[in-house]
């Protein structure tokens, strides 16, 4: 986990976005964006030692905060610009935000998406009214195609985070949060390009400079720590994380200036922490949240006693592909010690496996998968090796299961 230096400027400094911009954006979004709920979390509060509130932006229209910035940006276009239409590039959340915003404003939209984009996100973008064009294997290639389209057709390119109107629109979430949770002392927000954190920082630091703002990035896609150290946006050579919503290789120029000036700290979290956070959202909060949307909770789980409360964590999005959700939940259960893999040696005789299954049933371990090896030269002629994948109740139960098998006379190889 890494952190940045403290803010280098004050809310009064000249920045690309000010509180009045955010307030105007809030009026623009009246009747368009939902005022999403704030829910308390008893489990997280007990871990942190102070009240923890969840800002459920995963319940926003289109499933993420992106509608806010996209709508404010498109609403600010001139009549002539609107007639030319808009274009965007995205693998998911921004695509849907632009599609719905443009549709609500009567503007034609074209959205470029990577060839491998999840089918549910492609379908949703089309249903919101955009013309979808599949191009490129990664978002960078898709982005270049969208810019070329804008140059060739005159369509206005809608950047996902690097524009003052977009930042102001995302900042309306900060205004809402202060109204809903006036006692808050710390706000934790996931960070990709930085539009959401920057917008919230403008609103919160202008109204409550005492509130501590903490941004969270995935360890494998953390462009802000080196950029803040260098004093300018710096591109990563590569980025890798399950949290595709915050997988951005270079901070935006506009949000970087604001985050450099106003944000107190940037932390990084592991893939294990992200998957455990997503699992916690489902099991304890009963909320479907994508890995990027759960990054704020991943920071809490990684170092719960390092935050001053009351605390608010932003759940920024819930657009998770079912296949990704399945893989992430399995990873989260493994990270939480709720999967156990063992290799045992048994006598190769009828009934031996049934006896093992009976022993595991007594230990209350759920068998997910069993495989046999009979040809290993290390095995005796009358031995068989069995590999087991078990679902358990946690780390302590894992130890109990393994100890119980050894006590029952089984040879546990690993």
UniProtKB/TrEMBL annotation:
<dbReference type="InterPro" id="IPR001926">
    <property type="entry name" value="TrpB-like_PALP"/>
</dbReference>
<comment type="similarity">
    <text>Belongs to the serine/threonine dehydratase family.</text>
</comment>
<dbReference type="InterPro" id="IPR044561">
    <property type="entry name" value="ACT_ThrD-II-like"/>
</dbReference>
<dbReference type="InterPro" id="IPR050147">
    <property type="entry name" value="Ser/Thr_Dehydratase"/>
</dbReference>
<keyword id="KW-0663">Pyridoxal phosphate</keyword>
<feature type="domain" description="ACT">
    <location>
        <begin position="341"/>
        <end position="414"/>
    </location>
</feature>
<dbReference type="GO" id="GO:0004794">
    <property type="term" value="F:threonine deaminase activity"/>
</dbReference>
<dbReference type="InterPro" id="IPR036052">
    <property type="entry name" value="TrpB-like_PALP_sf"/>
</dbReference>
<keyword id="KW-0456">Lyase</keyword>
<dbReference type="InterPro" id="IPR005789">
    <property type="entry name" value="Thr_deHydtase_catblc"/>
</dbReference>
<dbReference type="Pfam" id="PF00291">
    <property type="entry name" value="PALP"/>
</dbReference>
<keyword id="KW-0021">Allosteric enzyme</keyword>
<dbReference type="InterPro" id="IPR000634">
    <property type="entry name" value="Ser/Thr_deHydtase_PyrdxlP-BS"/>
</dbReference>
<dbReference type="InterPro" id="IPR002912">
    <property type="entry name" value="ACT_dom"/>
</dbReference>
<comment type="subunit">
    <text>In the native structure, TdcB is in a dimeric form, whereas in the TdcB-AMP complex, it exists in a tetrameric form (dimer of dimers).</text>
</comment>
<protein>
    <recommendedName>
        <fullName>L-threonine dehydratase catabolic TdcB</fullName>
        <ecNumber>4.3.1.19</ecNumber>
    </recommendedName>
</protein>
<comment type="pathway">
    <text>Amino-acid degradation; L-threonine degradation via propanoate pathway; propanoate from L-threonine: step 1/4.</text>
</comment>
């Amino acid at each position: 986990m890494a952190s940045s230096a403290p803010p280098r400027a004050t809310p009064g400094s000249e920045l690309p976005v000010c509180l009045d911009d955010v307030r105007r954006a809030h009026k623009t979004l009246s009747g368009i964006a939902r005022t999403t709920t704030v829910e308390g979390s008893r489990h997280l509060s007990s871990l942190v030692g102070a009240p923890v509130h969840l800002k459920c932006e995963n319940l926003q229209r289109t499933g993420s905060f992106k509608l806010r910035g996209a709508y404010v940006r498109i609403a600010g276009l001139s009549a002539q610009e609107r007639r030319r239409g808009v274009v965007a590039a995205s693998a998911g959340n921004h695509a849907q935000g632009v599609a719905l915003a443009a549709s609500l404003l009567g503007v034609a939209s074209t959205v470029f998406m990577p060839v491998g984009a999840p089918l549910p996100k492609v379908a949703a973008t089309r249903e919101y009214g955009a013309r979808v064009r599949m191009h490129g294997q990664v978002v960078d290639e898709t982005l270049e195609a969208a810019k070329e389209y804008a140059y060739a057709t005159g369509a206005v390119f809608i950047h996902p985070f690097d524009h003052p109107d977009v930042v102001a629109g995302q900042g309306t979430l900060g205004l809402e949060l202060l109204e809903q949770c006036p006692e808050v002392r710390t706000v934790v927000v996931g960070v990709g390009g930085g539009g959401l954190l920057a917008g919230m920082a403008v609103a919160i630091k202008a109204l409550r400079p005492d509130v501590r703002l903490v941004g969270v990035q995935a360890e494998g896609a953390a462009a802000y720590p080196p950029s803040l150290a260098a004093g300018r946006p710096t591109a990563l050579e590569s980025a890798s994380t399950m949290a595709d919503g915050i997988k951005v290789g270079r901070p935006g120029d506009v949000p970087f200036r604001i985050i450099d000036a106003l944000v107190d700290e940037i932390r990084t979290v592991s893939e294990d922490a992200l998957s455990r956070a997503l699992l916690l959202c489902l099991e304890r909060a009963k909320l479907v949240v994508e890995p990027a949307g759960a990054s704020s909770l991943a920071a809490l789980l990684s170092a719960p006693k390092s935050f001053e409360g009351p605390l608010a964590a932003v759940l920024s999005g819930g657009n998770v592909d079912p296949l990704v959700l399945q893989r992430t939940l399995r990873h989260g259960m493994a990270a939480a010690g709720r999967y156990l893999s063992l290799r045992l040696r048994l006598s190769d005789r009828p009934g031996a496996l049934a006896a093992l299954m009976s022993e595991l049933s007594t230990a209350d371990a759920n068998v997910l998968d069993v495989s046999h090896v009979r040809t290993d030269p290390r095995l005796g002629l009358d031995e068989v090796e069995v590999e087991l994948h078990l679902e358990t109740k946690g780390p302590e139960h894992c130890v109990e299961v393994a100890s119980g098998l050894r006590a029952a006379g089984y040879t546990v190889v690993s």
